[in-house]
What we know:
By secondary structure, this protein is an all-alpha fold. The protein has 15 helices and two strands. The chain has a two-stranded antiparallel sheet with strand order 1-2. A hairpin with a 4-residue loop joins strand 1 (about 515-520) and strand 2. The chain is flat, with a radius of gyration of 53 Å. The relative contact order is 0.04. The model is unreliable at about 1-10, about 10-20, about 430-455, about 555-565 and about 650-655 (pLDDT under 50).
Amino acid sequence: SRRPTIGYRNRMAERGEEEPLDREGRIQARRQRIAERNSESSEDVKRIEHEKEMESRSNQQIAETRAHIKALTTEGESEVTAVRIARDQQENERRISQEVSRQARRRKLLYEAEGSARQNAVVAMKWSSLVDKEVAQELKAEIEAQREACDGIIEVKDSLLAEFRLELKQRDEEYVKALKKQAEDVDDLLEQMGRQLASLRQMHEEEVDEVETSFMQERHERMQAHEAEVQALMSRRREREESYLEARKHRIEEDQRRLEAARVQAAEDYSVLKIKLETEIQTLEKQLEEMRATYQLNQEKLDYNYRVLVERDTENTTTIKHQKRKLTRMADVLSALRAKHAREEKRYKQENAELTEDYKRVTEQFKDLQAKFQHFEESDTRRYRDVWQMNEEIVTGLMRKVLQADKIIHEQQLGLHWFPPSEQLFVAGRGDGGSTHAASSADSAAVSSRGSVDNDGVQRMLGLLCDEAGFLVEQKVLKLLEPLPVEEQNLLKIDSILKVLGVQGAADLQKLLSFFVADAESGELIHPNDAMKAIKAFIEEHQRGTRDSLGQSSRSLASTQGAQGPRGEEREFWERMSSVISGKTYRVWGALERALQRYHTLLTSRSGVIDEVRDLQQQNDELKALLNQYLSSKINEDLHVPPTHTIRLDGSSFHGG
């Protein structure tokens, strides 16, 4: 609502007029502006009609020029459209193939998501059973099983990710090929556009000369008409300026009268406001006196409260004396509780001995469980070999199909002789065992190569363990250690930590110390921030040595069978499969694919050109029939100059078109 008002004021300022103060004046001014606009619009209508009447040879010449240019432009657009249609068809085929591959990827993702969800559900269900495990060895075994299950899930996802990366690489290669094709199409378009631009520029120059000649003839006629129109407008402007000056004089007189009335009204308002403010000042002075009386009363109340607080301070002093006597009695109670604590400590030590016996019993059970684990490991190995053999047969069949396709490409498409690869590539190789034994011997050599340090280094290492690995001590043990001295607490904590880490003798302790030594010569230990890394490395190496000792029999069985590890067999198999098709064959396939694509593009473009030629021939026949009908019409005999006298036809070119 504010913008129109501002615009109106700006227009009034530009015209040199003052804004009317009353509503009637604004209405009258608005009506006057509406009448002026109506008169101007009527004059514009008359001028337009006059221009239509004065339409001359220049407009006709412009129409003919536009028709010629439009015909030439249409011809160029038809040539460019042919290239665009061919490119659109190729793009449509490419999108269809991409949609098919996208659906295939989506199905793979759905299948993998369903399988992963089932495996994740199995892993999640086992976590609840881990909470009930109280023995560290059982908990460790369950955690290792959970870790293997998680590794299986991650391996499936990694394989799917590698497949998608390979497909992405193929897409990149297709994109590069498409860019090359687009560059060729752009070069063709640029060449066609250059030819069309040259012809269009020549036609523009010729038509512009003709239009300029017609405009110069019309310019002289219009200048005479415009001079008469300008004279009429100047006379009208002079009359409007005189009427505007008269109206402005009347508005100034009215504004002066209103300004005087506003001054009188402001003086009356000032006198009324002055009387009102003086009355308020008197009221505020009265309120000030009342506040002074209130302040005096509050001061007397505060004096009384101070005396009351002094008396309460005396009473509090007496209460403190009673509390000191009570503190003495509580000290006697504390000594009695300490005696009770000593008795409880003795009882807890006895319970600790009983728990130690339970721990030994559980250790025996754990050894039995390891024997069972060895049995199931052998069973799983046999099952893995069966599954691997089945998958190896499938991959071998697929590779034979690829070789059959390569044979067809060489003999039928390229006309070359095809030489099959050796059958030894499809025979699974066998390697020598003993890798695990070598790894274990290397680990033992690495442990023995670590330097030894003195007892001072062991004590500093144990202190670092107590500070950084306190989380390995159970909460129950920590609660029992709270009343003991700090030295005894540290000793018991270190004993519990060493049991958790599996340190059973001096050799294990020396091995653990080798992971905490930063400099063997100076005996300097590692930084406390690296303590967790050292503990983790010791646990992994200690567990590896335990697994080596427990799986010695299984390794001897594997060595008698003369088989490598599953990873070695897989690596050897995939290396043999990757060497079936050589890199030269891949390059031949790529070159053949590109040649066939270019041949397909050529056939597609030829098909489009044939259709266009057929349409042009049909149009040519229709035009010839129509022209013959016009020339043989009887109405031509009534004309002074028949079309046959003005049109010269070349018989050979007419019939040939």
